[in-house]
Amino acid sequence: MSGRAWSVGRTAEVAGFARAAARRRDEGLRLLVLVDGTCPRWVIEATKGALLPERSSAEVVVTDLRQPQRDTGEFDAAILLVSESSPAEAALSLARRGVQVALVSEDALDAPSFSSDEPALGLVSVVAGSSRDSLLDKLALWLCSVTGKQIALGACFPFCRAPVTNGLVRRCALQNAGVGAVPLIAGSDFPVMTANQMRLALDVSAVYGRGLEPARVAELLGVLGGALAWRAFARRILSVAPALGLIARAGVAFGGTMLTGELLKFRFVAPDVPRPSRAREKDSGGVATSLPLASGCTGDAGNTGYVTIGEAS
Question: Domain total for the chain?
């Protein structure tokens, strides 16, 4: 493909990738958290602390599991912090409405039991962990699997960033391996794989809440330089062992994309240092007040998330 074809067509395509990544980053998220006081205290604190959003595009509604629930609209997912003695009605009511429900506890055996013939049980999952890190890792994976809003999840909730980014990198690497293995026209695989890696770079930056700024240009140029280096490496292998054609092209495409993804993760993880922030909370009386976030939570000035405590109005 000619240089002009890349400079015009592919540049426009990459610009479209950037706009799409920004839209997915700012996609609205609404989570419901129902808390049973009999759930272990550390589970409650770990989960509620992790679910303090960094961006105002996410809303987390927190209420008492044992109190009557008012109709609070649509939710992307519901997280119930439970123990073995927790009532099952709230989970079933949400599942019957089509809401994905996670029963979060210290041990899978601590989750309340349900009738096996309940049709809505397919929307109810158990998320259990014996430590904070284990619990949040499993909760992040569950949220990524049920919401369909992975980039928004990562941008709003830092504990979701690793699984979201890993999924994006793995998907892109598999796509590029397929492109490299079956080039329809000589040289046509390079611009396609490079465009995929540029989209990956923009998506990863969006996962970390970054906007369209000059730093993105430097990252894209780095991706382009890496792609050129990997193409030269693949050609070198084929010149020495041409019989390895398909395997070499697919392997270099997969490995090069995975390495690019790891470098992108390193690029954003290093400066992703917690900064103080504030969130708005609404008490059960309906009065909005401004309170500091829990220790260790992060946020951007002018772009804080909102946590609703009590019944949603």
Answer: 2
